[in-house]
Amino acid sequence: MSVELISESIATDHGRVSSVKYTVIDSHTGAPNDIVCVTREAYDQLAASAGRKTLKFDDFIKVLRPFMMGRLAADDIPDAFVILDSDRSGKIALKELAAFIPIIIPGGTEAMLMQHMKKIDGNYDEQLDSTEFTNFIMRGIGRDIVLQRH
Ligand SMILES: [Ca+2]
Question: 127 C-alpha to center of ligand 1: Å?
Answer without folding.
Answer: 8
